[in-house]
Amino acid sequence: MNNLKSYLISCQQRVEKALDARLPADHILPQKLHQAMRYSVLNGGKRTRPLLTYATGQALGIHEDSLDALACAVEFIHVYSLIHDDLPAMDNDDLRRGKPTCHKAFDEATAILAGDALQALAFEILSYDPTIKANDTARLKMIATLSKASGTQGMVGGQAIDLAAVGTKLNLPELENMHIHKTGALIRASVNLAAIAKADLDPAISTHLDHYAKCIGLSFQVKDDILDVESDTATLGKTQGKDMHNDKPTYPALLGMAGAKQKALELHEQAILCLKSFGSEADLLRDLSLYIIERSN
User: In sequence order, what are the beta bridge partners of 100?
Assistant: First the structure.
């Protein structure tokens, strides 16, 4: 895992520069909107989704220069979702990544617009960014992949299911379905965008990578649910115990804490099996799967 630690630092530094370069400068009109976008994006975070894009690219032999834009696109969608999820009409959170949420630092209207603008910027990048070394057919497939992962068949649909599930009891398939959409879809897109960038990739390899991403997308949410119970606000950088307070269905509530931890481990083991056709070039993907279920925030 020492190799992973240095990789995490290296990739986080790389994607920070790439994000900064693709965001509008805060002195350009409308200044307040651009300031809110930059505040929300350049506000720390684990950058798990960009890390997965880079690690998938490494497994497939794609140079990092061709992955920067893809990593940024998926992170812009992720941050837009966080801004909107934190709004009073949704999860009503005051803290994100250890700092006031966008609507607290600015105002609700600006936060909504900042999220909207980041969503649009993600697709502008996939359409036009010159560092993406892909033909028009591949670019269109990238746009379609991220669109589906972001919409009603992905993240937004999962959020709608989540909001409707407050105060209800879901069984395990229903809970997994919610998180396959809400959390898992964008994690799968992070991996799949890099796979699309590899010209003439064996469809079987694409399928293995997609199933790997599905497994870690679920394990990521299981671990989030565990941390919501076991961690604290300072470590998480967001309000601890929020899911329990809001009576949301979670893996620990359904399976018990021991059962939730076992579920996370099983998903990790399934993810590793999906990479059996790879050699050491996929070690970072293997390490990231373990990191996801062992992280502290």
Answer: 95
Domain that holds residue 60: 2-294
**175-226 pLDDT, tens per residue?**
999 999 999 999 999 999 999 999 999 999 999 999 999 999 999 999 999 9
* CATH number assigned to the domain comprising residue 250: 1.10.600.10
Counted domains in the chain:
1
What six digits make up the tokens of 281? Answer: 């070039």
In this predicted model, what pLDDT tens digit does every residue of 98-138 receive, in sequence order?
899 999 999 999 999 999 999 999 999 999 999 999 999 99
Rounded CA separation 159/128 (Å): 29
Structure tokens at 278: 């790879």
Classify residue 12 by burial, with Cβ atoms within 10 Å: 0-12, 13-18, 19+: middle
Residue listed under structure tokens 């400068």 = 25
- Cα-only R_g, the chain: 18
